[in-house]
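User: For a benchmark we're assembling, each entry needs the component sequences followed by a predicted structure for the full assembly. Here are entry 17's components. Please fill in the structure.
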Amino acid sequence: MQASSRIAIVGVGETEFRRRQERSLDALVVDAARRAVADSGLQPADIDGFIAPAGQPPADEIALAIGARHRSYTGINAYTPGAGPVAAIVEAQLAIAAGLARTVLISYGTQTSKPGGPYAFHAADPLKAALEMPVGYYGQPVYFAMLAQRYQHLYGLDSRHLGSLAVSQRAWAALTPGAQKQDLITLDDYFTSPLVSEPLRTLDCCLITDGAAAFIVTTLDRARDLPKRPAVIAGVAAGSNPVTLTEMFTQSRDFLDIGPGAAARRAFEQAGLGRDAVDFAEIYDCFTISILLQLESLGFCAAGEAGALVADGRTGPGGKFPVNTHGGHLSHAYIPGITHVVEAVRQIRGERGKAQVADASVGLVSTFGGPDHATLLLTVDR
Amino acid sequence: MNVPDFPPRLDTDLVKPFWTALEQGTLRLPACSVCGAWQWYPYEFVRCHPEATLQWREVRGRGTVFSFTRVTRNFLPVETAVPYVCALVEPDEAPGVRIASVLDTDSGEPSIGMRVRLKPTPRSNYTAPVFEPATDGE
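Assistant: Structure for entry 17:
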C-alpha cells in the first residue's frame, strides 16, 4: 500500500475509570474526546469525521463540544459493544479512502455501575427473558462458565492457567496509572476468590466501570507531521459468526468459537505479518476464558492448547508473551474494546514507562462482542 | 436442589407453546412446516423455508447434557437461592437444539454427556424445564 492510502492512530484519550461516576455518559465521552484531540497535537477543527455507537452522545454534540467545525462524515457504529471500537476503524479507513473525511474520531463510553449492570443488556432481549432467565441462565459470568465447562470437557482446562492470566494482568495494572485495581494478587488469592459460576471465580471476571475513551485516525502522511509517533494501522478487519447475539450462548453450532477467525486471518494478511511477529497482544477479556478461546481462533495455537501460552506468568510483565499490558478489562477498566486500542497505541509509541514492552514494534488487538469480532494490527512507522 | 423462580416474560405468543407444554408435563419444540427441521429459538420467520410456518411437535423429553455450570452467585433481578445447576440439554430427537434448563443433581454430580430426562417442576406461576439423570432403557 502507498503511504498516501495508509492510516494511523494519532491521538488517544480516556476518562478516569471507576464505579459510580456522577457525570453523564455524554460528559464522559466528551472528556475522552477532548483528551484524544489534545494528545494528538491536532487542532479541533482538523477533526471532520465522527463514528460513535447508537445510543451514545451524538456526533453533533461531540463535534461542537470539542470545537470541530466541518463534520463531513458521521458514522453510526452498529457493531456490538466489545467488537465496536476496532470495527469502527474499518469504517474510518473507508471514509478516509473515499475522501469523505480526513481525520476521524472514534469514541465509546459505558456506565456498567448503573442499575441492572452489564446484565440488563441481556435482560432486554425478549427471547432470553422468555426462555433463559426462567431457568437462571442469566448473567455473562454464567454464559462464559458454560463455555468454560464445555472447554474443560473437550480439552481439559487447568484453572491455574486462568489464574495466571488474572495474576499477570493485575501485575500490569499495578504499573498503569489510572487502573482500577492496583493491589497485586497471587495464585493463592485467585484460588480463594469466590466461585461465581463454576469454574469461574470473581477474579476471572472483568470489572464494573463508568468511563469513556476515544481515539483519532488519520492518514499516515498527516500523522508524520504530528508531534507523537504514529501507531500505524497495518491490518484491520471485522467479521461475524453465523449465530445471533440472542442464541450465541446456547445454539451456536461451534459453541467455543467466539471469533475472530476469518477477521484475524485478513488482518494478518493485510499486514504481511505472521503470528510470531506480534510483540504484545491486547485481547478482549470479559473473562479469562475468553482469552484462551481467542488465542486459538487467532491462530496462535491449535484448539485446546492456549493454556500453555499463558501458563506460569508468561503473559505478565517480563513474560515471553505480554497480554493486556494495562491490566485489561479484568484489572484496568471495563470500557469494552476501546481501552485495549488506547493501550496498544501507547505501547507502540513507547510511552508506557515501567509497563513498556521492550522493542514493541507490532501490537495486536483482538475484540469481540456477541457474534461480532474485529482484529487490529498496529506497528511502529517503518 | 434449588430451582430459580423467575416467570418467563412473554412479550408475544411466539414462545407460549413451550411453556404450555411444560405445564402439561411434556416438551414441545418448533419445527419448519415444510422440511421438519427444528428451529430453536423460535422466530416469526422460518430460516430454512421462507414460505413455512413453525409447527410445535412433542419430543420424548430425554436427552444429553451438552454443558452445565453450577451457579453460585445470583444475577437474576430477584432473590434466588444458590447454588443451582444450569444446563444446556440436547433432546434425543433434536440434536444441535439446546434447551436452557435446570439440572436436578440430588442423585449425583452432573457431567457433560450425561443422559437426562424431563422432570417438569412447578414454580410460582410456570413449570420449569428441569432435567434429572436417566439411565437408558428405563
